[in-house]
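MODEL INPUT / OUTPUT PAIR
PAIR INDEX: 1
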Amino acid sequence: MPLVQFLMMEKEIFLSQIYKEKYMKEINVAVTGGAGQIAYSLLPRLISGETFGRDTKVNLRLIEIPQVVDKLQGTIMELIDCGFEQTGELVSTSDIKEGVKDADWILLVGSIPRGIVIDGKKIEERSDLLKINGGIFTDQGAAIGELAKSDAKILVVGNPANTNALIGMNSANNSTQQWFAMTALDANRAKAQLAEKAAAEISSVKNMIIWGNHSPTMYPDPYNATINGASAAEVINDNQWIEDSYLPLVQQRGKAVIDARGASSAASAANAAIDTVKAVINPTKEGDCFSAAVVSDGSYGIPKGLIFGFPLRTNSNGKIEIIQGIELNEFAQTKIKVTTEELESEREAVADLIG
């Protein structure tokens, strides 16, 4: 390589480093379950500039259980090899306190899945799943409440997401931090089905609301969703399809993916997590909303304190608001009642963990 060309390359590298040090913002992001399938699809997009902006350097803390934390070194190698300009410090740890200290965002991806064998018992019942994950999210929540930044945002991806978030939030006991459970995956699935049925572009589907729990009781609202500005239900004009095909298809999509590929949703779940983060940090476009579960303030008659899927928007000041005044027909009210009752029963099942 000619000396002049070499010197110019060195100068570019030097100036790039100076730019990063002087002008780029910096953010600390923690991810649990860092060695899992979802994280493998998620992590590059967190540090590529796509999620937090090209002017933001992302310091990434990957958190795993002690048995597999060494595998994160390979993941870190790959992240370095991506060569993203926005890549900051990359750390792996099995210590939740080290992982969440001074974090701006925490993505709680790791959880104990249904079907795992613990002490010779296969965990199938949702009540057992709640109890086992409850202990994990109690400890994580306490560490987050104490050590993460006062305005930290926490997104729970690991299932059962709503009640895991409830447990974590109560353990954190920090009202200035904000907890979310992910329902964007359900919203994306619902948009895709409505668009396919209407022979429309998926980008034309707006106002997709997932009411309630991230479970088969969720209600993916086709009446308030719009396709090119008109009610999706009216555009499709087939109530039998909505009630007998669309709702079960969206509600059971996760199971269908597992049956088809032999593993749970990973790429689409990672994409939904990215969608949620971007929806929270950027103002919502006029006439649209985004879906996530947040703590209920009593809106729409939902009991206060439940982590419940609502229609949300981020205002120009960065505040997350539950959108008010949405009309719910009798069919919707019936479905919302079912998912509310499920979440109440889950809260009762973990009452000893939330005080």
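PAIR INDEX: 2
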Amino acid sequence: MAPPRPDKPADKPAPTPRRQAFYSPLPSRQSVVPLARPLGESLAGDDSLASLMARVRASQARLDALSDVLPGLLRQHLRAGPLDDEGWTILAANSAVASKLRHLLPTLAETLVAKGWQATSIRVKVQSTQAPGR
């Protein structure tokens, strides 16, 4: 039978007590900030923001409807722009893309009308990616 082992080895020093932090945590209190809501829910809650969101979705849907007419590489450089009472804007990444897109405007307008969209003017604008002043 083996001899009994001592609980603490004699050669190990006793552990030092942990030092307390120099600050104490703040007492828990109820937050005065309202809980965050998802963006879509916040936009839907306000009439003017809901109409803005509807216009953004309609603009993106128009661009998606043109995906079969637009060449693949050209589509990568386009973004749906503002949709207002005067027409719809397509944002081009650079002037070369905008130039090519302007040549396709009659075809794009015909495609939108054929897919059931209201006939409006289509504007093409170059979207600057550089910060102002550079």
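PAIR 2 NOTE: The helical segments are 39-45, 47-65, 72-75, 95-114.
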